[in-house]
Amino acid sequence: MKTKYLIIGNSAGGIGAAEAIREIDKIGIITIIGEEPFEAYSRPLISKYVAGEYTPDAMRIRSEKFYENNNIDVVMGHKAYKMDTAAKTVTLDDGTEIEYQKLLIATGGKPIIPKMEGMGKAGIFNFINLSDAKKVEEYLANARRAVVIGGGLIGISATEALVKRGIKCTVVEMKGYPLNTILDEQAGRIAEMAIKKYGVNMMTGRTVARILGEDKVTGVVYDDGHEMVCDMVVVAVGVFPRTELAQSAGITVNRGIVVDNHMMTSVPDIYACGDASEAYDYVYGSGRLSPVWPNAYIGGRVAGYNLAGSPTRYRGGTAMNSLNYFGLEMATAGMASPPSPEGYEVLKSEGPGSYRKLVINSEDKLVGMIFLGDIDKAGVYFGLMRDRIPVTAFKKKLLSDDFGLAQLPKEVIEERLTGATAGRVKIGEA
């Protein structure tokens, strides 16, 4: 089997790349390999599926005719397990060998499984994709109590879905407060209170040492020896990049697959994007993992343009989230807390049901933000961060209640209105 463009991964990055390729090359053969047996869907919506709020059809990110309309060959339900960069071939788990001219690795992440005794029983689940979500949903008839291991983004989204289905939940988080990768402690405590109001039991500073039961889950034992009865366990500690395919082929891998500012790996004609890659983070000024949906899609588009021969530079991304968990609106981006007190300024504002924090570096550029409660203007702040605009002239106004575009200098307003805030995202530049 031969193809011009081979894309390993049928999610945000792969779809973004295919669309970008088709803008440049209308006829070159595109082949997408998807490990799951589903057409492209929104993975952030799997909690809504478990909650009963979305069907798989409603989770589609493109129409049923997307592959056909774009002349894309899609192979679903198969995994790429071997790659030969010299021969330019990829072998699938069924033995199929695909010869390519250009390749994109968009393999995403895989769940982190902490060391625990008692794995392998019925009632233990991951919560990464729709396949996991379907297994969880099917098991709910057998469950009344659940333990969710991990109080991060995945764990809290899973917990909210289970609570909506009437399951009594306990969240076990090894650090001191939930959502600690995107929130500082003050914001984390606010989030914890919001979660507890829904009857969730929060166990912070703890881990699960053992899962009880013979054939199926009956409870867990914490690292302090305390036991808790439950019917199911959701392991939602987080994900790490799926780099084994690239690494075994000799492609440079650090924490993720290392890419340049065109999303190309250390091997010519091979690109990477999304959760598997380590791309430029403009907040930290270096390559970092950024496992969020928008960055995967944008990185995929940049890779797609370059795959199709249209030189395009990735302007950089950073961790960013706009969420609503347990009735609490949250918008975060960049650094939740500065790495050291030197060289950074922190501005804070707190009111009834709200919390705002901005982190500013020595160049007077916004490098971090946390908004809880009222997040209506979060997009303005994120725009300042993304476009690396110095806030020197209006720093004292940043947290005023009436701060907005109107308070910015005229030249900044013009840039914002004619650039990224005018309803478009600057994907890249040659």
Automatic annotation (TrEMBL):
Gene3D superfamilies: 3.30.390.30, FAD/NAD(P)-binding domain (3.50.50.60)
The keyword Flavoprotein is annotated on this UniProt entry: yes
Molecular functions (GO terms): oxidoreductase activity
Domain NADH-rubredoxin oxidoreductase C-terminal span(s) in chain numbering: 320-386
Entries under InterPro entries matching the protein: FAD-bd_OxRdtase, FAD/NAD-bd_sf, FAD/NAD-binding_dom, FAD/NAD-linked_Rdtase_dimer_sf, Rubredoxin_C
Keyword terms, alphabetized: FAD, Flavoprotein
SUPFAM superfamilies xref list: FAD/NAD(P)-binding domain
Pfam family of the protein (one): Pyr_redox_2
FAD/NAD(P)-binding domain segment(s): 4-277
Swiss-Prot/TrEMBL cofactor(s): FAD
Protein name as annotated: NAD(P)/FAD-dependent oxidoreductase
Biological source species: Dehalogenimonas etheniformans
